[in-house]
Amino acid sequence: MDLGLKGRKAIVCASSKGLGRACAMALAHEGVDLVINARSADTLSRTADEIQAATGVSVTPVAADVTTEEGRAALLEACPSPDILVNNAGGPPPGDFRDWDRDDWIKALDANMLTGIFLIKAVVDGMMERRFGRIVNITSSAVKAPIAVLGLSNGARAGLTGFVAGIARETVRHNVTINGLLPGPFDTDRLRNTIAARAEKDGITMDDAMARMAETNPAGRVGDPDEFGQACAFLCGDKSGFINGQNLLVDGGSFPGTL
After folding, report:
1. What pLDDT sits at residue 1?
2. How many C-beta atoms lie closer than 10 Å to residue 145's C-beta?
3. What does the pLDDT read at residue 4?
4. What CDD domains has UniProt attached to this entry (predicted)?
5. Beta partners for 52?
6. One domain for residues 233 and 216
7. Per-state percent for the chain, helix, strand, coil, to nearest 5
8. Nearest-angstrom CA–CA distance, 67 and 116
9. Count of the separate structural domains present in the chain
10. Cα–Cα distance measured from residue 163 to residue 32, given in angstroms and rounded to the nearest whole number
11. Grouped pLDDT means (10 residues each) for the chain, 259 residues
């Protein structure tokens, strides 16, 4: 399926590995030129080389912390007029809300709410003037089914989701859509690190711990990041302009509800 994106330009945040990388790779296969981002310059450079070799598109790596004003400025300098923006940033640590102080909350809000808002603010008017724009916010399945130990993430990501619910209704008339992609368990380094800690605590092997997690999902497995990347690319497609202000769960059907 040709998504009509050849020659478009995209900023994909936090994209040296995991779900961000999968989104960047899927867009590159559609002919989208990329600016990709991560804090680790070495890992980011390797990813840029791999995507470019696999697809032939232009890939510009920008090593920066996207949760800072300086990091966002560096991204926008590299691509001041993107057609596509994929917002992504690592989630805050789990814990007990009783242990979090104001600084913990501000850090979570900066990373998982305000970073996305400020990048949208920087690019959305240009997208509307050019009559094309696709913004995808990678959040979490916890937006729809909050997880108690992820209170920092629940609050910050829900804030971004609420903001988008309002602004998306104003941008879509200009062929600019804003949607959320809500991942469940995917086979990423982040998930494996979490599972490794759980395996050690339970005194079982990593393989057994992964199998237990897979068994709890209706699909009987965890997700392949490439599946997530393809979902992102579809939302960015030329013919996806009537999908707007939505939050698409990509979780194997684990959300325990109908809406």
Report:
1. 83
2. 16
3. 98
4. BKR_like_SDR_like
5. none
6. no
7. 50, 15, 35
8. 9
9. 2
10. 27
11. 96 97 98 97 97 98 97 98 96 90 96 97 98 97 88 95 96 98 91 82 89 92 96 98 97 89
193 part of a folded domain: yes
Distance CA 26, CA 229 (A): 5
Query: Do residues 32 and 116 both lie within one domain?
Result: yes
In a 10 Å sphere around its CB, with 0-12 CB exposed, 13-18 middle and 19+ buried, how is residue 1 labelled?
exposed
**Owning domain of residue 216:** 187-222
Residue 90's pLDDT is 87
Same-domain check for residues 118 and 80: yes
Separation between Cα atoms, residue 180 and residue 116, nearest integer Å: 11
Quote the DSSP letter at residue 127. H
The amino acid that residue 186 corresponds to is F
How many whole angstroms separate alpha carbon 131 and alpha carbon 234? Answer: 18
Write out 32-77 in H/E/C secondary structure: CEEEEEECCHHHHHHHHHHHHHHHCCCEEEEECCCCCHHHHHHHHH
Which neighbouring-strand residues pair with 134?
Answer: 84, 177
Contact partners, residue 102, CB within 8 Å, separation at least 6: none
Write down the residue that tokens 């395996």 correspond to.
199
CA distance 187 to 72: 28
Q: Which two tokens stand for residue 246?
A: 């939505």
